[in-house]
Design brief:
Radius of gyration of chain B: 24 Å
Largest sheet of chain B: 8 strands, mixed
Shape of chain A: globular
Number of strands of chain B: 19
Strand content of chain B: 15-25%
Distance between the termini of chain B: 20 Å
Largest interface: A-B, 26 and 30 residues
Oligomer: heterodimer
Order of helices and strands of chain A: HHHHHEEH
Helix content of chain A: 55-70%
Number of helices of chain A: 6
Radius of gyration of chain A: 14 Å
Distance between the termini of chain A: 18 Å
Largest sheet of chain A: 2 strands, antiparallel
Helix content of chain B: 10-25%
Amino acid sequence: MSLTRRQFCALVGASALAACSGETTQPQATGEPSAEDALLIEGLGAYFDQLEGADAFGEVLLETEPASNGRTALLQYFRDLPGLGNPAELTQEQLRERLQEVIVADYAAQRVLHIEGWVISRTEANLSALLAQS
Amino acid sequence: MAKIDANEVPRDSEIETDLCILGGGAAGLAIAWALRAKPIRVTVLESGGMDYHEPTQELYGGKSVGEPYSIKATRLRRLSGSLNHWAGECRQLDPIDFTQRDWIPHSGWPIGLDDLAPHYQKAQLILGLGRYGFDMAARAKELNDSGFGLAPGDWEPRAFNVWTRAKCALMPNTKVVQAKNVTAYTWANVVEIASEGTDPGRVTKVRVATLRGNAFTVRARHYVLALGGIENPRLLLCSNGTQPEGLGNGNDLVGRFFMEHPHVSFGYLVPFDGVSDKLYRLRTRKDNTGLFAALGISAATQEREKLINFAALVYRHRATNKRQTDRAKTQLERVDMSEELLRGARLLVHRTGEESGHAFATPGMFHIGSRTEQTPNPDSRVTLLEDKDKLGVPRAQLDWRVRAEDWEAMSRISRLFGAAVGAARVGRFRSNIHDPTNPPPMAGVGHHMGTTRMASDPSTGVVDENCRVFGIDNLYVAGSSVFPTSGFANPTLTLVALALRLAAHLEEKPR
């Protein structure tokens, strides 16, 4: 069964609510994400129309480079992306467009990885890795 | 051109001529064509007849000890030679192919594209390639399609022209065969190039033998060796009557530097919707000649990234029925591609609705083929075996070797290609050459080059800039065996252009 974007958002939203009811809102490298992180992940997840398989590259990355692909580092990567602005202030469509711009810029600057032969931008790879562990 | 069966020539007789061309293939016949109706007697010695003949073809039989290769299957021993099974794809070498590139050992020609330009135009005509020209802007305008629209800089469209067999002047029974000053001997196998006396600086005759037992000699003022990139060194090496190491082999270079165009499946492209591949498809012109385009790496990028010359060919992956689907699946499974990652890549280009039973059978998916330069490698070579053919000529051994640096360069090229198509929003690319230590299956395509390489100095090559064998006044070599580097372009157009240039040089020689 494949997850639609709507189903994914519902799932991540439920996780975020659960996290908000807890005592801490600090980002966690493992376990449930904070509410803020969950919202960011939800927004980023909107990049894909369909999520099943979207994390395929991420799973490979997590296997081959687990140290550099922790959730905290990946979230920070997206927060620091110069072209993205503040994701929380963007609609999903805007976020998606900005992500596409960042990804195109990645390719133009050859910020790419070979993942089992696929030439994938750093941002796409990080997005996949983030989704794979969320 | 009169045709004479070599079996009918009186035994042990001696034929005198001005120019003796050894080999009636594309290179040899191009020279005969250029010298038709000139005041010069031209004799062509062709091993085969008009049709395929297995016992004659068997004379090619040799041994391959390097990369898998069939020596016998890549050439045809009959009049017009390998043109008889030629696909007819042609392109000039690029200017950078002629240059000495400090990142490619043994690169550099003693001549440049300008030296060949007028001969390329004539070669285009006699090969039946129609209108001369490789202008991609005109092509794009004609098709109203600019291709993938990659950012200018790294990748540039490259045109190929495709022949029409019926228009080629070098096929049997065409005009070259009607020239009165040209005589072609069929079934005439040259078994030795001889230089008499103590002077190895001149060839005095060639010995000819037929499979039916006849034998005679041909004496000429000038000789042109035009037997192909394996047979040329084979005959030079076994012609050791006065030079034990073989004719022209004083520096142990004859037979070395064998190059091919290693063909590999470069990879697969999952395109965004609406991406057009029209520019890259084969189109037939009104005169029945063909034209298609590939994507080549610019000279500036080759220099900056220290790359080899390369072109990517775009093939649409059509899979509209089960048979095609199964074939696509087989092809893709051979390259060990993860189906899950392919699905992931399709999500990256937001293609979600075109599953057709199997993720591999994606209509609109492009297979990317390759045309690759092989860099010169002295250890990739033709030598002689002890074993001899039916005429007593030692058989050839081929040790085809591709340098590890070539695979590394191709891996970097694949990364560049993937980045370029990503930046242009064309799609996502899966390279089959991502791991240079584990390259995909490779095949040669019958392009035998480099074994009698051209150079400005005998210490680095076998022939000079006029294709004359160093140290021998009257022996020349025609064909792609003189290429010092291979470029990525199919060699026939260039070898015919070089042959025409050699013909012009020989025409000026005193008779």
